[in-house]
Design a protein that fits this description.
By secondary structure, the protein is an alpha/beta fold. The chain has seven helices and four strands. A four-stranded parallel β-sheet has the order 1-2-3-4. Helix 2 links the parallel strand 1 and strand 2 (about 55-60).
Length: about 140
C-alpha cells in the first residue's frame, strides 16, 4: 500500500491501474506554511472532516530546516488540526519537545529519509519518535 497525497479527485482515476494499492480515502492539506499548494479546504476543516469520518488527515509538516518548518507544528496545533487522525509527513527539524507534543496527540509520522537527505542533507532523528511511541 502506498500513499501520494495529491487530491483524491486527481489520483482516483489512476488507482485501479496501479500495481499496488493506493490509499484514497483521506483528507489533506498539502503542507502547513507559505509553501502550501492549498489542496483541500484548509487544515482546520480537513481535520474536522477526518475526525467525523474516521479517516486520516495527511499533511507535510516540518519539511525543511528553516524557521517556518520549525514552527509548523505550533501552527498546526493552533488550527486544531493535530490529533489521532493526523498523519505528518517529514517532521525533519523536530526535537524532543515537538516529538512529545506529537506523541501526546497520538498523531502518526511518515519518515522519508532518502528524500530528506537528498534535499536537505539530513533527516529527522527517528529514534526520538520511536522511543516516544509515535507510530
Amino acid at each position: 500500500m502506498v500513499f501520494d497525497h495529491i487530491p483524491p479527485h486527481i489520483s482516483k482515476p489512476f488507482s485501479e491501474t496501479l500495481p499496488t494499492k493506493l490509499v484514497n480515502n483521506y483528507y489533506l492539506a498539502h503542507s502547513i506554511g507559505n509553501y502550501s499548494l492549498n489542496w483541500g479546504e484548509g487544515a482546520a476543516l480537513e481535520y474536522k472532516l477526518a475526525e467525523e469520518n474516521n479517516r486520516p488527515f495527511i499533511t507535510h509538516l516540518g519539511e525543511g530546516i528553516d524557521e517556518e518548518s520549525i514552527v509548523s507544528l505550533r501552527r498546526l496545533e493552533k488550527m486544531n488540526a493535530l490529533g489521532p487522525n493526523s498523519v505528518l509527513v517529514h517532521c525533519l527539524p523536530f526535537g524532543q519537545r515537538e516529538v512529545d507534543i506529537i506523541a501526546k496527540n497520538k498523531a502518526t509520522v511518515v519518515w522519508c529519509p532518502s528524500s530528506n537527505i537528498h534535499i536537505f542533507g539530513k533527516t529527522t532523528n527517528i529514534k526520538l519518535f520511536l522511543d516516544s511511541g509515535v507510530n
